[in-house]
Design goal:
This protein is of the alpha/beta class and 209 residues long. Helix content is 39%, strand content 16%. Strands 1, 2, 3, 4, 5 and 6 form a six-stranded mixed beta sheet that branches.
Length: 209
């Protein structure tokens, strides 16, 4: 039986900050429920935005800018689920992660029907707007959204403060359990011979003729 794995992307410039602490809690919950995971930090270097060159051919799992995006795409091809975490900057995800996700989802063809979840970390506010933006990458890629008992967020200005957010960490643990459950459901469906939905050829309509 294949060991299932979830890729967790830490979109914060701080490798061991608040966002990472939230992802660690979700990862521990996944492990307790028999699912492997890996936290991938996008780093604090320059991440080029998508320039719509389409040299990737669209969905090729490789971008012309050879950086952390291509590294994450390799890991995503080997993963069964995805969790993306971001700190809140001006009531939104941070700029580096935005550029990262634009390119990752433009190039990748390894997302369809893999469960996904967004996680936001904030000192105070802007979390729900951040979650909404990240989740749009998932829903346009036919990825089932995984929820928890509350919106997937933690609060604190430091990782130590996040450790004191009992409800936030509880939310991360429930998220990990729910992700593991959905992955097992998908595995059971595969074993029962239930195929993934048939894909149609994409149709694009412009509003300006």
């Amino acid at each position: 039986m294949k060991k299932m794995k979830v890729l967790l992307i830490n979109g914060s410039p701080h490798e061991h900050g608040c966002t990472n602490r939230a992802l660690e809690e979700a990862a521990a919950s996944l492990k307790a429920n028999g699912v492997d995971s890996e936290i991938f930090w996008i780093g604090k270097g320059n991440i080029h935005g998508c320039i719509a060159c389409y040299q990737c051919g669209g969905n090729s799992n490789h971008c012309v800018f050879d950086d952390a995006v291509n590294q994450a795409l390799v890991k995503m091809q080997e993963s069964d689920g995805l969790i993306v975490g971001s700190p809140v900057y001006y009531a939104s995800l941070n700029g580096a992660l935005s550029a990262f996700l634009d390119r990752m989802f433009c190039c990748g063809d390894c997302f369809h029907h893999k469960p996904a979840a967004a996680v936001a970390s904030a000192r105070r506010a802007g979390t729900t707007a951040t979650l909404d933006i990240i989740q749009k990458y998932f829903t346009i890629s036919q990825m089932p959204l995984v929820s928890s008992q509350y919106w997937n967020m933690v609060h604190g200005a430091t990782a130590e403060q996040v450790k004191q957010d009992a409800e936030g960490l509880y939310t991360m643990r429930v998220l990990g359990r729910n992700m593991a459950y959905l992955l097992r459901c998908q595995e059971a469906a595969r074993n029962a011979g239930i195929a993934l939905p048939k894909q149609e050829h994409p149709v694009f309509t412009n509003f300006v003729r």
